[in-house]
């Protein structure tokens, strides 16, 4: 299968121009090896296998894999996250985690992406459900979300934001503990029976939802002075 691509096109056109110039100058002994090298280079980038990869790609992958193995970067050594420092896998391998305190002296975490100079802060939120809620109230909530997004576009240094929602089956253990903790031993038998029925039936088909909003900030501005990681974290802590 043939497919030159950008690199192949550059080699084809550039090589043809160079060879034509050499031939025009009458340097036939130089032109012959140039043509051979030109054809080999075209074959390396132009001939592709069934996976769409040419010889140059395969050689580059082999060399890169060999260098990665020599450096030991192909190994992942996991460990606990409560003590010590461990490198996470995948695209998070180059990130750094910092702990700071906000204006109310509450601890929060900042994820640093040194390669691009970005800093991300994740905040756990509690989204309201739409069940048994008037449509007008739902409209107010949606309008509030839209207003927050609009204000986010005016926030200095914001690169992007994302919402992560985690949904899992609810076992009902939290509801059971809450009812048992607040249940009055002297309550009427009917009230106890109703609460017991609720604890028994509610978990069926119920879900446990958790949500986080992650906002990513740019560490440096084009016109502003260069800031250190401590400066960026201090700025985020004051917001």
From TrEMBL:
Cross-referenced InterPro entries: SCO6880-like (IPR049978)
Residue intervals passing through the bilayer: 12-45
Keywords, in A-Z order: Membrane, Transmembrane, Transmembrane helix
Domain of life: Bacteria
The protein's name: Uncharacterized protein
């Amino acid at each position: 299968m043939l497919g030159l691509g950008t690199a192949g096109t550059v080699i084809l056109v550039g090589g043809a121009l160079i060879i034509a110039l050499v031939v025009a100058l009458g340097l036939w002994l130089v032109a012959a090896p140039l043509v051979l090298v030109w054809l080999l280079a075209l074959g390396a980038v132009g001939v592709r296998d069934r996976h769409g990869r040419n010889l140059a790609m395969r050689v580059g992958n082999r060399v890169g894999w060999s260098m990665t193995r020599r450096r030991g970067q192909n190994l992942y050594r996991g460990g606990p996250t409560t003590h010590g420092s461990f490198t996470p896998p995948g695209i998070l391998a180059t990130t750094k985690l910092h702990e700071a305190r906000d204006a109310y002296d509450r601890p929060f975490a900042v994820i640093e992406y040194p390669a691009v100079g970005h800093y991300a802060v994740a905040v756990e939120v509690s989204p309201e459900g739409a069940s048994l809620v008037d449509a007008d109230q739902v409209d107010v909530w949606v309008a509030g979300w839209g207003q927050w997004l609009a204000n986010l576009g005016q926030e200095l240094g914001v690169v992007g934001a994302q919402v992560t929602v985690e949904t899992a089956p609810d076992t009902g253990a939290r509801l059971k503990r809450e009812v048992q903790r607040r249940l009055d031993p002297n309550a009427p038998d009917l009230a106890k029976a109703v609460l017991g029925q609720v604890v028994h039936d509610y978990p069926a088909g119920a879900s446990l939802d958790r949500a986080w909003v992650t906002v990513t900030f740019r560490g440096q501005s084009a016109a502003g002075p260069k800031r250190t990681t401590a400066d960026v974290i201090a700025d985020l802590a004051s917001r």
